[in-house]
């Protein structure tokens, strides 16, 4: 039987494969969720570089947040990544939830990014 870490790795690989097949040249919005913070990057896989990044550790957000690990923090990171991605010229994206369930902080981040102009 697989332990939880191995199961997460399998979900992540399966999700990444489907994203590669469906991307059609779009950039990827990649989410990493830790126990204390949430991080997100806009990645161009064809050029192999990061176009924009945001997290709860950014100076702009850190002072206004009560905690880096709640839904409100994820919403603020979603707003910030939407602004930075639009400034980099990326509005059509593919959402990579990174093996995490589309629930809670991941869902809040995605909905905030959509509400601020990103399409995925």
Explain this structure:
- The chain has 120 residues and is of the alpha+beta class.
- The model has no long low-confidence stretch (mean pLDDT 93).
- Helix 3 (71-88) crosses helix 4 (105-115).
- It has one domain: Nucleotidyltransferase, domain 5.
- Strand 1 (27-33) and strand 2 form a beta hairpin.
- It is globular.
- The longest helix has 19 residues, at 4-22.
- The chain contains 4 helices and 4 strands; from the N terminus they run αβββααβα.
Uncertain spans: none
Q: Termini distance?
A: 35 Å
CATH topology: Nucleotidyltransferase, domain 5
Principal-axes geometry comes out as globular
Fraction in helix: 40-55%
**What is the domain total for the residues?**
1
Structural class, by secondary structure, is alpha+beta
Strand content: 15-25%
Number of helices: 4
CATH architecture: 2-Layer Sandwich
Largest sheet: 4 strands, mixed
Which radius of gyration do the C-alpha atoms yield? 14 Å
| Spatial order of the strands forming the largest sheet | 3-2-1-4
Mean pLDDT: 93
The number of distinct β-strands equals: 4
CATH class: Alpha Beta
Summarize the helix and strand pattern as letters.
Answer: HEEEHHEH
